[in-house]
Automatic annotation (TrEMBL), chain A:
The lineage of its organism: Bacteria, Pseudomonadati, Pseudomonadota, Betaproteobacteria, Burkholderiales. GO terms for biological process: transmembrane transport. GO terms for cellular component: plasma membrane. The chain crosses the membrane at residues 12-34, 103-127, 139-161, 181-198, 239-265, 285-311. It is a multi-pass membrane protein. Keywords: Cell membrane, Membrane, Transmembrane, Transmembrane helix, Transport. Its main location: membrane. This is ABC transporter permease. Belongs to the binding-protein-dependent transport system permease family. It is found in: Cell membrane. InterPro entries: BPD_transp_1_N (IPR045621), MetI-like (IPR000515), MetI-like_sf (IPR035906). Pfam families: BPD_transp_1, BPD_transp_1_N.
TrEMBL record, chain B:
SUPFAM superfamilies: MetI-like. This is DNA-directed RNA polymerase subunit alpha. PANTHER family: OLIGOPEPTIDE TRANSPORT SYSTEM PERMEASE PROTEIN APPC, PEPTIDE ABC TRANSPORTER PERMEASE PROTEIN. It comes from Rhodoferax koreensis. Keywords: Cell membrane, DNA-directed RNA polymerase, Membrane, Transcription, Transmembrane, Transmembrane helix, Transport.
UniProtKB/TrEMBL annotation, chain C:
PANTHER family: TRANSPORT ATP-BINDING PROTEIN. Residues 5-251, 272-519 form the ABC transporter domain. Signal peptide: none annotated. It comes from Rhodoferax koreensis. InterPro entries: AAA+_ATPase (IPR003593), ABC_transp_ATP-bind (IPR050319), ABC_transporter-like_ATP-bd (IPR003439), ABC_transporter-like_CS (IPR017871), P-loop_NTPase (IPR027417). One of its GO terms (biological process) is transmembrane transport. SUPFAM superfamilies: P-loop containing nucleoside triphosphate hydrolases. GO terms for molecular function: ATP binding; ATP hydrolysis activity. Keywords: ATP-binding, Cell membrane, Membrane, Nucleotide-binding, Transport. Pfam families: ABC_tran (PF00005). SMART domains: AAA. This is ABC transporter.
């Protein structure tokens, strides 16, 4: 069994490298096709042919695109992520200053949202049809259906502006104590939880209910098992596959999709870096960010796939 | 829905009423609430724009962020336009475009997932990795390339939103389908020599439909919100038309005063998505299947 | 100590249909009541009702059930849970559908002990291993660590029995507990059950269609038909002097009569030629050997219109053989010729026509039916797929098929979940018939059927053979059934073919000792047969242990 | 009033600019937005600085003089030192001005710098600038952000070494910067604050919320719609700077419907300026007259009759132009308020039977892809330090950014003449003529000049408008102080 999973992991890592390469090519191709290059975006209204030419030369954009890509790729092979076209800073440095922030925010959010979502999902599956189920399910849908920027703004208005319990920005200056971390993270985490809990919760509920309909559950019931046991020991293991995937998808959102939260709370994360990169057509930056997201996503889904396989002996012993 | 409003023939009345009752009772109370809400918005989307006077729509001379009043039932927006008109107008886009994009995304994702699972492991691996790669493309970038490449139109908007959500739907559907694919009855179909398509659609699909529908319900919400983001990027619906998500975004300035112009479209989104999810949760077919009998 | 059971006026309904009507009976503590009746008569439904449980879609609408002092139908859910699995244990009819596919067998077997906090996990496991041994399961120490799909049908059923018995219940409800077992294993298992009943004086309800088995186990027999009680009487009386006509017909059909075999089998064409076949499960090593070898060096020839019975103990590889022929597992060695053409080892490489010609009826009827398709569409598919039938001819053929397997036309609109065990099995058969194949691999097709319906199915099989020249690989654990329909019998043990006996030699010896043993182990339709076997056992060991 | 208060020393403030991106830079030549400019004025000085009427005042140059507006002599202030202790020398000035001409610098001010022929140290404290053609506005030009003085030979600007009122302590592009008081600053008594933390917050409501929740003391670019909220919160106030910023409707004269001058005229009559001012800018704007010089400018021509909405005239011109069918009009959030202006135009257009087909484009890539390319679209022009710069950049016939491709040799002559003109009265007349010509002929419709609005804590004192933009023309740093 371990050999099987190890084999899967090795294969996945190999394929992942290919995927990453594909992503970089794709991103590069898109940046190449998109109207406007880094120099034009940088100069904006100030663009004149001479200024453009000068800036292009400075940014290395005068080199033909494929060559630029190969050069960048060569750099990657040597562990050099390249230089950001707009800032002329090493991309590695730019990313390194932001990535930990993003990971921290994602981790804290995951820490809260996953247990809450799974608990709610399982509980509403167990008591399906009850008022609890209805309130929880409808509530979850209602909460995601409120645009993220509205939730975040509302939270700021209430907790920061009105009550002044929490800071309006999550990262103004150095954070020293744990209490400060909690205060700073409370609202972003709350907003993000609102977005991602629903998917995990609903999928957990659906998958568990699906299993509760399976014939073997009848036997479990006839053994005198409590509903809790029925779900935790029987339905859940069989539902792990889809649940793990929903969790992986939701969590992958926390890396690249948090742009709105980063904007509203002025949190210096990597999503904003990438969106800026896209706006400025900063190819090395965008590529690195895209590859980071891709890698994060691949790690998450691989973990989800492994969970699915571990949970299903038929797949495990194929 | 349609045939429920037909006048009941006197002779068959009891039977028809019984059928009617059963059809609705199949939905359950919350299902009916969902259906009514959904019907309301569908009607609003279809008939609303024709019914509201254009006068109101054009009146930009009104007060900015005006409160609810007899002249403007839902107040006015950030340019002093009537919110009622804006919301009803927006229904067309949100209901139509979002529903279409969601169905496309979930449909394509599920179909691909079924195909991946029902054909060889090699196809499965290839498709899975390809779609994984697709997810890594920043959606903003993707949207930009779509505008750049194809111009912005409603069709393009639908396509973009659909493509962005295909990989997610694929993942979920695949994770459900692999489990079903390992079961005996699929083996039976295989020994019969059934083609991939049949195995996908008839053997596996019905058994993953429950979770997939609930996924679809959520994906709908995401698409509605994505539309707001995309129209902010300048993709798709062109002003003065606006979908509800964009209405919320446009009027977010009214939030501190809890203005109707931001609350109403938010409520509209919430009610529509809740309705969709209520209906999905209470589909009579599902309830019946869960009980094991028809 | 056993509990008394009193059932009064029990009525169970599903939708507008009454499944069980006004049923009353009682069982004294420590006694065994057998429920017999035709497939679909409501046996399982009644058995479940004794635990206060009705399947989804069914409802207990009237009556009362008392077990000892407990009024089962009026318990709170907490009290119900305390009762189930502890005081009343249930051995379900379909073992395959009753095990959680993703947890090990041991986890599930010791679960009742854990739920009711009866003993520590270690104690429970030890007890489980003892039970495995008692129930004649192979590798009792380690079988618990496998997953449900890794054991054979009969093994799974015994594992379920172990699960029910682990909590030493006062009332055991056994729903066709030995249907999937070969006769030798069946004896072991019956012994184990009887020990439980006798030693612990547990009360038992034994649901079965096999009168011979019932004769060994039951003190009283209750005959059900169409949800109504036909008669209830002490076992000897029922066997000797049944009062009800239906009971009489059941008894009359108890011993399958040999079906006339078609003439000139030998000179007809060779249909299936299995040569030196080996196959197994698990990852394949460098030499092409699977981790777990199941079949070894099987040779088998089957002529057109011939029926070959495959018997052998549970887990001997019968199903595996069928799966190899059907192309579901890739043999690691040997060849299979069909119509003198080599059959490709894998499904995908076989042509549609080849696939149509060979149909397999799966042993586990439950899992082989798609839970979301109606019976009608399940049956329609092969007709549409192979024959391109549409409209009225299609409907007619479906009705015809249902009729052939003695199913009422009303089941057509139902989903598999709304069928009884025997009904599902017949749907499975009907689906195979629909393809009008040349060869049907029947894996225990009659094991869940009562004698009357079973006989009808056997008749059907014989008729198809006679008239259409269909051939069969007829897998069964029941020697009598096999004898009744087959021209030749292949005896398997531990994955090897031990002997092949032709019809003419059925009653002439001498045979392979294992065949003799099987023949001897078939229960006889009289009380006390098992006891005789028991006493005989002390003088001559029954099974040559390996 | 606030200005009468005596400044107090000490304290620390947090300020939020309106943009934050990884391309934040401390290189004066590359600076492109208000956060860059604001940081620039903390760290650097120019030879001159612009006051509230955009008149150049001595800064690092103690004095400047010319006779022909072609050769300029700047006398440097003595005793000025850079943050690292090095004294300011003519070589620094030569380097700082001349580097813009080098294409490799990719300076944003290259066009302006190109008129400089040479910069030479002509004495220990004297620099002489020779222009290729006379320009009376040179002191204005060297007072702008790009011409801030850096140390001779600097190529890496991340240390932010200048002569400015604050020294750089920390700089994280796109995140924040931290500056502390320069104790050796050459302006006596200045600056007042100990420390300024400067961040960029891209989202307007986030900025306002940060202010109102006590997280910020000064925030830039407050939307008019948030003003009531800020004013309504005790302890906070609004600071308005009326400047020459405008968003304009561009109707190209060389292609599209704008080729017909009547179409442009029709559109100009379609602007409901009053309503735009009221509903779009919520009165934080002044009505404009289809010409780019705003009332704060010393060359503003007040005598030009105001054009107002006139549907009859609009209809007349439209019919005369013969333009029918849908008129595509490109807008983008990139050009401030252009979407809203276009929406109102669209509505008024319907009333005369004009069908405007709005095309809202992403802000990304708007300037490079659509601006200047679309036949009918919108542009946005930030305040310029001088009327001459503005007209040269946007209206001269062969200007790169001649948005509407309006070409008029007479205008070009006037522009050249006015640049060299040192007689203020004459010059004023020339500008008035040019404004009239644009008002009449150019394919440019300018509905209003927008104000910049900043929000601040009432404790923050010393703010007064400089019409280069908000935040005191981005040079608040050395002028504000915290009240106890
Ligand atoms: N997927 C599997 N992996 C490993 N072992 C398996 C698997 N399936 C079956 N086996 C083992 O192979 C042996 C033969 O199984 P098979 O199903 O062929 O038995 P059978 O003769 O049909 O028995 P029964 O009469 O009980 O159905 C059994 O010991 C069983 O435990
Ligand atoms: N959920 C249901 N809804 C409607 N009818 C049902 C449902 N479940 C079972 N039935 C019907 O109830 C009858 C009794 O079923 P039951 O399972 O008790 O039969 P059984 O006597 O155990 O038969 P077998 O020997 O084949 O297992 C059958 O005719 C079956 O079709
Ligand atoms: Mg049964
Ligand atoms: Mg078997």
């Amino acid at each position: 069994m371990n050999r099987l999973i190890l084999g899967l992991l090795v294969r996945r890592v190999a394929i992942s490298l290919l995927s990453l390469l594909a992503v970089s090519v794709l991103v590069f191709a898109i940046t190449a096709v998109l109207p406007g290059d880094a120099a034009e975006e940088q100069l904006g209204q100030d663009a004149t042919p001479t200024a453009l030419a000068a800036l292009r030369a400075q940014m290395g954009l005068d080199v033909p695109a494929p060559l630029r890509y190969l050069k960048w790729l060569g750099g990657i092979a040597r562990g050099d992520l390249g230089t950001s076209a707009t800032t002329q800073l090493p991309v590695g440095e730019l990313v390194a200053s932001r990535l930990p922030n993003s990971l921290l925010l994602a981790a804290v959010t995951a820490l809260f949202s996953v247990p809450i979502a799974l608990t709610l999902g399982i509980a509403s599956a167990v008591w399906r049809g009850s008022w609890f189920d209805r309130v929880a399910s409808t509530g979850a849908v209602a909460v995601v259906s409120v645009p993220e920027f509205l939730v975040a703004t509302l939270a700021v208005l209430v907790f920061a502006v009105k009550l002044r319990w929490l800071p309006a920005l999550s990262y103004v200056s150095d954070i020293e104590s744990v209490g400060q971390v909690l205060r700073a993270f409370a609202m972003p985490v709350l907003s993000l939880c609102c977005v991602i809990i629903a998917q995990m919760m609903r999928m957990t509920r659906a998958a568990v209910i699906d299993q509760l309909e399976a014939p073997y559950i009848e036997m479990v019931r006839l053994k005198g098992a409590s509903p809790l046991r029925m779900v935790m020991f029987h339905a859940l293991p069989n539902a792990i596959g889809p649940i793990a995937n929903a969790v992986a998808l939701s969590l992958s959102y926390l890396l690249g999709g948090v742009i709105i939260v980063e904007t509203i709370f002025n949190y210096p994360g990597i999503a904003k870096l990438m969106v800026d990169g896209v706006s400025q057509r900063d190819m090395p930056l965008v590529q690195t960010c895209a590859m980071i997201f891709c890698a994060g996503y691949l790690i998450l889904v691989t973990v989800a796939d492994v969970c699915g396989i571990v949970a299903n002996p038929r797949l495990r012993h194929r | 829905m349609k045939n429920t409003v037909q006048p009941l023939d006197a002779g068959t009345a009891p039977a028809a009423r019984g059928r009617l009752f059963r059809r609705f009772s199949g939905f359950g109370l919350s299902g009916i609430v969902g259906l009514l809400l959904l019907a309301f918005w569908l009607l609003a989307a279809l008939l609303g724009p024709a019914m509201l006077s254009r006068e109101l729509a054009g009146s930009a001379a009104g007060e900015v962020f005006g409160p609810m009043s007899a002249a403007h039932w839902l107040g006015t927006d950030y340019l002093g336009r009537d919110m009622l008109v804006r919301v009803i107008d927006g229904a067309r886009y949100t209901v139509g475009v979002a529903l279409l994009a969601t169905v496309l995304a979930s449909g394509t994702g599920t179909t691909l997932a079924l195909f991946a699972v029902a054909s060889s492991p090699a196809v499965d691996a290839t498709l899975s990795r390809l779609l994984d790669t697709l997810t890594a493309i920043p959606s903003k970038m993707f949207a930009l390339i779509m505008v750049a490449g194809f111009g912005s139109s409603v069709a393009m908007l639908v396509a973009t939103a659909a493509v962005i959500y295909v990989p997610g739907a694929f993942r979920i559907a695949r994770s459900l389908a692999v489990n079903i694919n390992a079961l005996d009855y699929v083996t039976v179909a295989r020994t019969r020599g059934e083609g991939t398509l049949y195995i996908m659609l008839r053997e596996i699909l019905p058994n993953i439909l429950g979770p997939m529908l609930s996924d679809l319900g959520l994906r709908f919400v995401y698409v509605v919100l994505l539309l707001a983001g995309l129209s902010f990027l300048g993709l798709g619906i062109q002003p003065p038309a606006a979908d509800w998500g964009s209405l919320v975004r446009e009027n977010i300035g009214a939030l501190p005063e809890a203005g109707a112009s931001v609350i109403v479209p938010s409520l509209a989104i919430a009610s529509l998505t809740i309705a969709v999810n209520l209906v999905i949760d209470n589909l009579p077919g599902r309830a019946a299947r869960e009980k094991g009998a028809r | 100590m056993g509990a008394s059971v009193v059932v009064q006026g029990l009525r169970i309904q599903a939708g507008g249909q009454t499944l069980v009507d006004d049923l009353s009976f009682s069982i004294a503590p420590g006694e065994v009541l057998a429920l017999i009746g035709e497939s679909g008569s409501g046996k399982t439904t009644t058995a479940l009702a004794l635990m206060g449980y009705a399947r989804d879609g069914c409802r207990i609408t009237a009556g009362s059930v008392r077990i000892g002092e407990v009024d089962v139908l009026n318990l709170s859910s907490v009290q119900q849970r305390a009762l189930r699995g502890r005081k009343v244990a249930y051995i379900a009819q379909s073992a395959a559908a009753s095990f959680n596919p993703s947890r090990t067998i041991m986890d599930q077997v010791v679960e009742p002990a854990a739920i009711h906090r009866l003993m520590t996990r270690a104690e429970a496991e030890a007890k489980a291993v003892d039970l495995f041994r008692e129930l004649a399961l192979p590798e009792p120490e380690t079988i618990g660590s496998r997953y449900p799909h890794q054991v054979s049908g009969g093994q799974l059923q015994r594992l379920m029995a172990a699960m029910a018995l682990i909590a030493d219940p006062d009332l055991v409800i056994l729903d066709e507990p030995t249907t999937a077992l070969d006769v030798t294993t069946q004896i072991e298992v019956l012994r184990a059950f009887r020990r439980v009943v006798r030693e612990r004086r547990a009360t038992a309800v034994y649901v079965s269609h096999d009168l011979a088995v019932v004769a060994q186990m039951a003190d009283h027999i209750l005959v059900l038909r169409g949800g109504q009680m036909r008669e209830i009487n002490p076992t000897p009386q029922i066997l000797a002097a049944p009062s009800d006509d239906y009971t009489k017909s059941l008894l009359a059909a108890a011993r399958p009569v040999p079906r006339v075999s078609p003439p000139t089998v030998r000179d007809s064409q060779l249909l299936l030629d299995i040569h030196d076949l080996s196959a197994g499960y698990g990852p394949v090593d460098a030499k092409g050997q699977p981790a777990k070898m199941v079949l070894e060096n099987i040779d088998l020839r089957l002529y057109r219109g011939q029926a070959i019975g495959v018997i052998g103990e549970s887990g001997s590889g019968k199903t595996t053989l069928a799966r190899a022929v059907a192309g579901l597992i890739k043999p690691c060695h040997g060849t299979i010729l069909f119509n003198n053409r080599e059959l490709k080892p894998q499904l995908a490489q076989r042509s549609k026509e080849e696939l149509r010609q060979i149909q397999i009826v799966f042993q586990m009827a439950d899992t082989a039916l798609n839970p979301s398709q109606t019976i009608e569409s399940i049956l329609a598919r092969p007709l549409v797929f192979y024959k391109g039938l549409r409209g009225e001819p299609l409907q007619r053929r479906i009705r015809q098929l249902l009729d052939l397997v003695k199913l009422p036309a009303t089941v057509a609109g139902r989903l598999p979940g709304g069928l009884s065990g025997g009904q599902k099995q017949r749907v499975n058969l009907a689906r195979a018939l629909a393809a009008e194949p040349d060869l049907i691999l029947c894996d225990e097709v009659t094991s869940a059927l009562d004698t009357v319906v079973g006989a009808a199915v056997l008749d059907l099989i014989a008729e198809l053979r006679r008239e259409l020249g269909v051939s069969y690989l007829f897998i069964s654990h029941d020697l009598h059934t096999v004898r009744a329909v087959c021209d030749e019998i292949v005896v398997m043990q531990h994955g090897r073919k031990l002997a092949q006996v032709a019809r003419a030699d059925y009653d002439r010896g001498p045979h392979h000792p294992y065949y003799e043993l099987l023949a001897r182990s078939v229960p006889e339709l009289r009380c006390g047969w098992l006891d005789e076997m028991d006493s005989a056992r002390h003088t001559t060991p029954l099974e040559p242990q390996t | 009033s606030a200005h009468a208060d005596t400044p107090r020393k000490g304290g620390r403030i947090r300020v939020a600019g309106a943009t934050a991106a990884a391309n934040d830079t401390l290189d004066p030549a590359k600076q492109s937005n208000q956060t860059d400019y604001s940081r620039g004025t903390m760290l650097y000085n120019g030879l001159t600085s612009l006051d509230s009427s955009l008149t150049p005042q001595p800064a690092l140059a103690e004095s400047f003089s010319t006779t022909d507006a072609k050769t300029w002599v700047f006398t440097l202030r003595k005793g000025v030192v850079f943050h690292d202790g090095k004294a300011l020398a003519p070589a620094d000035v030569v380097y700082s001005l001349m580097r813009h001409k080098d294409p490799a610098t990719a300076s944003k001010a290259k066009v302006l710098a190109d008129q400089i022929d040479s910069v030479k140290a002509t004495g220990p404290n004297e620099v002489t600038v020779v222009l290729s053609a006379p320009n009376a506005d040179l002191p204005v030009i060297v007072g702008t952000f790009h011409f801030h003085i850096v140390k001779d030979g600097t190529t890496d600007f991340n240390a932010g070494i200048g002569t400015g009122p604050y020294k750089l302590k920390e700089f994280k592009p796109g995140v924040r910067s931290l500056v502390v008081r320069n104790e050796a600053y050459w302006k006596p008594g200045k600056p007042y604050l100990d420390e300024i933390e400067f961040v960029g917050i891209g989202d307007e409501s986030a900025r306002v919320n940060a202010l109102l929740s006590g997280g910020m003391d000064l925030v830039a670019s407050v939307n008019p719609r948030s003003v009531a909220r800020v004013k309504g919160t005790p302890g906070y106030a609004i600071f308005t700077t009326q400047s020459g910023q405008y968003s304009d409707l561009i109707m190209r004269r060389d292609v599209g419907p704008g080729m017909n001058p009547d179409f442009a005229m029709a559109m100009k009559y379609l602007f409901d300026r009053e309503q735009m001012k009221k509903t779009i800018a919520l009165d934080y704007a002044v009505i404009a007259n289809d010409q780019p010089i705003d009332p704060t400018n010393r060359f503003y021509f007040a005598g030009l009759p105001q054009r107002t909405m006139d549907l009859d005239k609009a209809k007349f011109h439209l019919q005369k132009s013969g333009v029918t069918g849908k008129v595509p009009m490109v807008t983008s959030p990139a050009a401030m308020y252009s979407v809203e202006i276009a929406l109102l135009l669209q509505q008024t257009g319907q009333r005369i039977g004009l069908d405007i087909d709005l095309k809202r484009m992403p802000a990304d890539g708007y300037w490079s892809n659509h601006w200047l390319n679309s036949p009918v679209g919108f542009g946005n022009v930030n305040p310029r330090p001088s009327a001459d710069t503005l007209l040269t950049q946007f209206f001269q016939s062969d200007a790169a950014w001649n948005e509407s491709r309006w070409k008029n040799p007479k205008f070009d002559q006037l522009l050249l003449a006015s640049r060299a003109e040192t007689d203020q009265a004459k010059r004023k007349q020339q500008y008035a003529d040019m404004q009239t010509m644009i008002h009449q002929e150019a394919g440019i419709g300018i509905p209003m000049f927008l104000a910049s609005i900043d929000g601040h804590s009432s404790k923050l004192k010393g703010l007064s408008p400089i019409p280069l933009g908000g935040l005191m023309g981005y040079s608040f740093a050395e002028n504000v102080w915290l009240d106890a």
